[in-house]
Design a protein that fits this description.
The protein has eight helices and 25 strands. Helix 6 links the parallel strand 11 and strand 12. It folds into three domains: about 160 residues, FAD/NAD(P)-binding domain, CATH 3.50.50; about 120 residues, FAD/NAD(P)-binding domain (3-Layer(bba) Sandwich), CATH 3.50.50; about 100 residues, 2-Layer Sandwich (Enolase-like, domain 1). The chain is about 20% helix and about 30% strand. It is of the alpha/beta class.
């Protein structure tokens, strides 16, 4: 059997490893537009010159050779013929498959703002090629503008600061990382970034960009009337699942590739995993999806039931934060908010009807992993007769009298 995998990030590599570990004789071909495997989470380390390209790889140097996997790098898939079971690449190859895994991830997009798409110095920050282009720009640039203050935007900003650039971050919402943090925890990071030289323009948006005679964006105009100088511009204002090559294939989509709990699409022998499904959210989930899709392609029947993806661990300038679940509830949700803080820590619990819906731990996050289990499984804490901030793993274990095993006791 021949399995083709489109994409070489977390889901694709996890699937390939799983297939080869289970059935070494299965032919596996990975097609990827990148020239080398790398962790997207570590791109800021590369751009900040803390690691080289090899240092942000998450596979061994000889992974493909030792695993017997065919690796088509610098190769873009431009079409898919599901009836004849072939994928077409940009260099006019037609690659056949028995089963196909689409793990092509997501790509950044440039908003249709006058002057922005035309500017030659506008970059995303999604893959190593983006980081390499930015790396070269940093050799001569002085003023950098990052549009978007989510995790990707803040990663780009910290790397550009490391390179000695003047960095301005523009964000439409009133706080940085508004999907991952509340105002209090976001303010702590904004202060740290400002102490390291960054400037922030919040609750404002870009309306146009002045382009110079050689096609480079030089001045960014905002709705407020402010203008910001730029030598380079990083777009970090959102991504879209990358599946344009499936057009006309019959694969069902709705802003992402639609899959069942078995990660199979509506077409037999075609599966999808990772960001292209719109439900990965975080690296461990993408790896798990890749593993389950691989097992199912080999004939088993496992279900992916971990669609909970609202988890983020953040660390900038030594300040660590764990964010889980619904951390910014709306008033109509009628949630109870509990907050505990001291000089070095900020902790927040969001509770509804005795069930924890979200938590933020900023500062010391040790021993807090069990909160994800409580949120995912909607564990009622009403009967816990103690300070909820003092809960630990021990409060949710007991011993099975029959076997002596320790187990979750909730």
């Amino acid at each position: 059997m021949k399995i083709v995998i489109i994409g070489a990030s977390a889901a694709g590599i996890s699937a390939a490893k799983t297939i080869k570990a289970s059935e070494p004789d299965t032919e596996v071909v990975i097609i990827a537009k990148e020239d080398r495997v790398h962790s997207r989470c570590m791109l800021h380390k590369f751009l900040g010159h803390q690691r080289d390209a090899q240092g942000i790889s998450f596979i061994a140097d000889d992974f493909f050779e030792s695993s017997g996997i065919s690796w088509l790098n610098n190769t873009t898939v431009i079409g898919l013929d599901a009836q004849n079971k072939t994928v077409k690449t940009h260099d006019n190859q037609d690659i056949s498959y028995d089963k196909l895994l689409i793990a092509s991830g997501a790509s950044y997009f440039i908003p249709p703002i006058p002057g922005l798409r035309e500017s030659k110095n506008v970059y995303g920050f999604r893959d190593l090629k983006d980081a390499q282009l930015l790396d070269r720009e940093c050799n001569t640039a002085k003023d950098a503008v990052v549009i978007g203050a989510g995790l990707v935007g803040m990663d780009a900003a910290v790397a550009l600061l490391e390179r000695g650039l003047k960095v301005t971050v523009i964000e439409m919402t009133a706080a940085v990382m508004s999907l991952q943090l509340d105002q209090k925890s976001a303010d702590a990071y904004q202060q740290l970034f400002e102490e390291h030289g960054a400037a922030f323009i919040l609750a404002d948006k870009v309306v146009s960009v002045d382009v110079d005679a050689v096609g480079r964006g030089r001045t960014i105009h905002l709705a407020s009337g402010k203008a910001v100088a730029a030598d380079l511009i990083v777009i970090a204002a959102g991504v879209r699942p990358a599946f344009n090559f499936t057009e006309g294939s019959g694969i069902a989509t709705n802003h992402a590739i639609l899959v069942g709990d078995d990660l199979k699409t509506n077409i037999d022998d075609i599966y999808a995993a990772g960001d292209v499904t719109g439900m990965a959210g975080i690296w461990p989930n993408a790896m798990k999806q890749g593993r389950i899709a691989a097992i199912n392609m080999l004939g088993e029947k496992l279900l992916y039931q971990d669609r909970y993806a609202l988890k983020n661990t953040i660390n900038f300038f030594g300040l660590t934060t764990l964010s889980l679940g619904n951390i910014n509830p709306q008033p109509e949700e009628k949630c109870q908010i509990l907050i505990r803080e001291d000089r070095n820590n900020y902790q927040k619990l969001v509770i509804k009807n005795g069930v924890v819906e979200g938590v933020i731990f900023q500062g010391n996050i040790g021993g807090s992993g069990f909160w994800q289990y409580l949120i995912k499984n909607k564990i009622d804490l009403s009967a816990k007769n103690k300070d909820l901030f003092s809960l630990s793993y021990a409060d949710f274990y007991d011993q099975d009298p029959a076997t002596g095993e320790y187990r979750y006791a909730v």
